[in-house]
Write the structure tokens for this entry.
Amino acid sequence: MYWTLSRRAEQLTSSAIREILKVTERPEVISFAGGLPSPASFPVEAIEQACRRVFVDDPHGALQYGPTEGYGPLREWIAARHGVAAERVMLTTGSQQALDLLGKVLIDTGAPVLVETPTYLGALQAFSMFEPRYVSVASDDLGLVPEAMTPEVTRGARFLYAQPNFQNPTGRRMPVERRRALVETAQARGVLIVEDDPYGELSYDGTQLPSLLSMNPDGVVRLGTFSKVLAPGMRLGYLIAPPALLRKIAQAKQAADLHTPSFTQRVAYETVRDGLLDTHLPKIRALYAGQCQAMLDALGQHMPAGVHWNRPEGGMFIWMRLPDPLDASTVLQQAIERNVAYVPGAPFYANTTDPRTLRLAFVTVASERIRQGVAVLGDCLQQALAETAAAH
Ligand SMILES: Cc1ncc(COP(=O)(O)O)c(C=O)c1O
């Protein structure tokens, strides 16, 4: 062997979702497993025209190195949308990079990090590189429970990682009163909140609830992304942070990649600067609302008694809980044999898992296939329930 892995790398495991996605690449598989946005939502022509404008207007600038914090006009545009000063905004290479950078500058080995129950698997992957001790904060159908942020739970915590809008994986949205209570509690305990919000703009009726950032700009780092409103292949996200913390994150970003690609940032700016999102977002919302409804209708028709799921008001995910004693990982094996896939809930839990839960992603599957896939899933569950009844 020519190499010795770091202790950190030894501990890395492949994401459970990636393993499932390998199976779902077969065209006959109806996959509710992936978390990808629908390609039908990409504004291809607008992005193509933006590329041309960038090449005509300032090709050399777009092909040169740029500032670590990001392209000035795009920072200004993001700042204006959030009502903050541009010095608080940094462009990142996807919001996934923002998670990594926050891990780098905020987590020491063994330090407590507070997370929702369940939470985004990709955040756990990013933070785990820095070997925190996860503390799962009690959450219910409306999200984090502010009263669970007791002094014992929050002691020494480096931050709380929270997704208030259409959370990945549960699709739930936190009501305004709870947001206020959460921000006040975190403020009282001196805990920084990392607010990750890739899905907030995908509310089906267009309503936006106030961000956690707007409630305490000095105690919240907000992450956003162009992945779900333009296209994920651009790898363009951003963070909004108090200036002193942002300067530290900029040092970490310099070490990581110097800066996010100049070209992509300019293309994104040219794409959105004249208000494209005002006309484009309603199209994505209508598309996803229709897909969600198709799945909810099919679930209502095909699920056996005792199976529970939520009715998301936005985003890309439905969360399901199977009746005792079914296990979502076991049922998945049967579903895959019949060419239907989903992601079991277990990997989304930082500590104690709930093996009965699973996530259904519905935006990349056509409505007719959604109906077929849910019918098969219902059948698998009926069968699994019949088998467990016979065993008793
Ligand atoms: C909650 C959450 N945060 C961050 C990301 C990363 O997105 P990106 O790096 O494409 O901005 C995702 C992607 O699915 C996500 O669901």
